[in-house]
Amino acid sequence: MQEFFSWLGETLGEIIRFVVDLLIVFFYNLGASARGFFDGLASALGIPATLVSMAVLLLGLWLLYLALRALLRRRIVATLIWAVLGVVVLSWLIY
User: Fold this and answer.
1) What is the CA radius of gyration of the chain?
2) How far apart, in Å, are the Cα atoms of 4 and each of 7, 13, 53, 55?
3) Residue 48 confidence (pLDDT)
4) CA 65 from centre of chain
5) Which superkingdom is the protein from (predicted)?
6) Are residues 70 and 40 in contact, defined by beta-carbon separation less than 8 angstroms?
7) pTM, entire model
8) 65, CA 20 to 30 Å: which among 16, 20, 36, 89?
9) Given CA atoms 57, 60, 61, 62 in this order, what sign does their dihedral have?
């Protein structure tokens, strides 16, 4: 009877180890993929791949999105304001 529980514990331990190793490989590859994406994006735009530059990029794109929303709502003055702000922020980043 002791051999059965020893075998059961060993099998369960191997299954847990396999799942943990699988998750480690998955998250390592996910991190490497994200790192590669941001490096490629930054090199295509000619900006450094830092957290601050990515945040400024997102801010500029968000401002352009707000300009598009204002344009779709036929708010011409708001469209111009958001578009100019978005272009200014992106021009600081992409030189």
Assistant:
1) 25
2) 5, 14, 59, 57
3) 87
4) 18
5) Bacteria
6) no
7) 0.67
8) 36
9) positive
